[in-house]
Write the structure tokens for this entry.
Amino acid sequence: MTVSKEYNVSDFLAENVKQERTTKEVKITGYKKPFVIQSVTSEEFDQMQKQATRKLINKKTYQEIEKTDNNKFVDLLIEKSVVVPDLHDEKLQKSWGCLAEPAKLLRKMIPKAGEYGDLLEDIQKISGFEIDKLSDFVERAKN
């Protein structure tokens, strides 16, 4: 592949690039209305990874290592991606007995592991991931 020596830099300027967040309706058994999910940006993804990663000291080598809590990452991903219903709504949280725990709320609202996993898969797809890229997160969420 050859790179064109001539290109217009304005084609790459932020003000000339259309970047819209993708949304999708997802039907969940038992609900009259569909859930609505949205894509996450690469900046949001990085921020979630940082929030789910902690530094530890290896007891044998005494070197600092980073460990990602995959469950926390999935919880943050869900919290950022689910738009409808609003998982931060106090009335909804009280109804399901999950105050200040949006991801736990969603797990209670979607008790079927397969539907929960399908929702995570849809979040991956609209965020631009290939299905297998985050499959370990989906598998852990299902279990």
Summary: The mean pLDDT is 86. Helices lie at 42-51, 70-81, 90-96, 102-109, 113-126, 135-142. The longest strand covers residues 53-57. The radius of gyration is 19 Å.
